[in-house]
Amino acid sequence: MSNILDERVEYAIQQIWLDPWNGNGAEAKKKLEEAVEDGNADACFFLARCYFGPCFVNPRFGFEENDEKGEQLLDRSIEMGSAIGMLGAKRVGGFQPRCGSFIHAPYNSWKEIWETVNNYANQGQVFCQYLIGNAYYYGDCIEFLGVPADKINTATIQNFQNKAIWYLEDCVKKGLHLGIGNLIDIYTSGDYGMPVNERRAKELEKIGADMGVGFYENKLGRSLVKIDPDQAKNYFERAISHGDANAYLQLALMYMYEGAYPIDLKKALSLLKEGYEKDPDDWGFANYLGYLYFRGGDDIAPDYIKAVQYFEKAIGESKWCSDMLGTCYLNGLGTTQDYNKARELFLHYPNKELSALGLGKIYCYGLGIKQEIKKGMEYLKTIPNNQEAREVKTHFKRSLFGWKQIV
After folding, report:
1. What does the pLDDT look like over 327-378, one tens digit per residue?
2. Which pTM was predicted?
3. Contact call for residues 275 and 298 (beta carbons, < 8 A)
4. Residue 261: how many CB atoms within 10 A of its CB?
5. How far is residue 205's CA from residue 215's CA, in Å, rounded to a whole number?
6. How far apart are alpha carbons 131 and 168 in whole angstroms?
7. Distance (Å, rounded) from C-alpha 258 to C-alpha 176?
8. Half-sphere exposure (Cβ direction) of 89: Cα atoms closer than 13 Å
9. CA distances (Å), 22 to each of 17, 82, 211, in order?
């Protein structure tokens, strides 16, 4: 912990952002509040972050999410003269200071503000290093430094990216994980002609996982499922404990059909439901809950009504389930029979086995459309090992005059 900022602010940075899984968030927030009451402008900025939700602060602390309070504190930070507050608030999307400008006394320009925060960063203040590193990564430094437009070229941007690497790598060494994603992007994207460094990107993913960042624990787990299932399971369970809801899905898949472990659909179902409750916007949960109810097995009977309900929730974001949902509409399973809706769904992924079977039936029998046996047969030919497709083919015969239905 540095001694550059007020010791209460430094304590809060350590407890809330550097060591969020072991830190004392309640005590840290209390110290920030005390510093704010004492008129510390920097404390206003960091306390504001505590009110802006999971993108700004670890949800394990249970801080109240209140954008209005957060914005009021950003305003105070600016008006009380915090360079950190001015530069940091500029990067909060949608925020506009009530005084009309991010630049406030005692500063007269972005360059003065930048020099102050950059000075703190060069003295080793980790959060200022993060702010400066991000400004280089996103290109905000162009405005802060007043770089003329005609001076911005590939070499200039590469220079900014290299400076971003320097600051953000130092943040990682000090235990601040917030810049890992941007570092990985620099090392893997090849943007602006930057050299690709996959080895370092993989190292950073492991570092993020070791820091207890659920996203990287989940990602590392996914890479190990086929190589070391037990280790993958360990990472998924850690990711769940660190707030990554998607890890419930990845762990559930290990117990589902063709999963890494012996099938246990009851366990998979429990994990999927728990994850879905935590993150209902993750369409993967709806897809796989629908899949499990559509297919059934392992003492769980198919439940097409539930399958359709989950598929309908997922289909707006993901067409992965379109073959199964189309099959439900084609056969009236858990929903009203609707041939046109079924065909529309099958056409999203016509090469999937269920889609090809469904389209083959629709065109061969003329379900909801004009009969086109030849077209239907073309779909059925793509799934030669499907028993139902073979049976459908026996209902038709090709003659010199084309295809005819014989049954």
Report:
1. 999 999 999 999 999 999 999 999 999 999 999 999 999 999 999 999 999 9
2. 0.89
3. no
4. 15
5. 9
6. 9
7. 38
8. 36
9. 10, 29, 11
